[in-house]
Amino acid sequence: ATKDEAKKHRYREKISEYMTRAEDIKKHIEKEKQDGKYHKQIRIEENATGFSYEKLFQEYLTEIVSEVWVEDPYIRQLYNFLRFCEMLVKGPCKVKTIHLLTSYDEGSGRSQQMSGLEEIQQSLRNYGVTLDVAFSSSIHDREIRFNNGWMIKIGRGLDYFKKPQGRFSIGYCDFDLRPCHETTVDVFHTKHTKKM
């Protein structure tokens, strides 16, 4: 809006400088990814809020993501897994297949676990998404992988949210407002990660 040509010139130079710096940072991160050195760590403090699945995963869910692998021995809070699936269905990615590897719930919870997973499976089918469920008694680590090369390891898996205080308490519906358990989230790019 200024009429001063000298000011305009200075502003243009500054804008150009910032744009160049942003492009350099972008190239540096891309090189780190290519070299397999990219590692980002997020520490979620006890009772912290603002860590919904959208906040954690959205930047890695590019349009080319069509397949997701979730390995978590303790998928017991099926609403959390359902919430994760809802995020995938909403996009911007075009997920067609979700692979879940987990362990059986022990005792009386097994039939509830199975019927819940079958219901999620059927519901995803209505959106053109296949949920492939497999069980392992020896699975230990928790990780989520996208077919664009991103891998996320969460110490507590998808169940890092605390239970809400009641059905009508803030945070019951909006996970950004839900307090979390303390955990660490590690993000890697797996292009050059060797599978043993």
Description:
The protein is of the alpha/beta class and 196 residues long. Helices cover 33% and strands 20% of the residues. Strands 1-7-6-5-2-3-4 form a seven-stranded mixed beta sheet, covered by helices on one side. α3 runs parallel beside α4. It is elongated and about 75 Å long.
What does this entry show, briefly?
Residues 50-189 form the MITD1 C-terminal phospholipase D-like domain. This protein is α/β, with parallel strands linked by helices and 196 residues long. It has helices at residues 5-34, 53-57, 78-90, 109-125, and strands at residues 39-44, 67-71, 97-102, 130-135, 143-146, 150-154, 183-189.
N-C termini distance: 60 Å
Order of helices and strands: HEHEHEHEEEE
Strand content: 15-25%
For the residues shown, what is the average pLDDT? Answer: 88
Computed structural class: alpha/beta
Q: How much helicity do the residues have?
A: 25-40%
Pfam families: MIT_C
Protein name: MIT domain-containing protein 1
InterPro entries: MIT_dom_sf (IPR036181), MIT_domain_contain_protein1 (IPR052817), MITD1_C (IPR032341), MITD1_C_sf (IPR038113)
GO biological process, one term: midbody abscission
Secondary-structure topology with pairs:
Blueprint lengths: L4 H30 L4 E6 L8 H5 L9 E5 L6 H13 L6 E6 L6 H17 L4 E6 L7 E4 L3 E5 L28 E7 L7
Parallel strand pairs: 2-3, 3-4
Antiparallel strand pairs: 1-7, 2-5, 5-6, 6-7
Protein name: MIT domain-containing protein 1
InterPro entries: MIT_dom_sf (IPR036181), MIT_domain_contain_protein1 (IPR052817), MITD1_C (IPR032341), MITD1_C_sf (IPR038113)
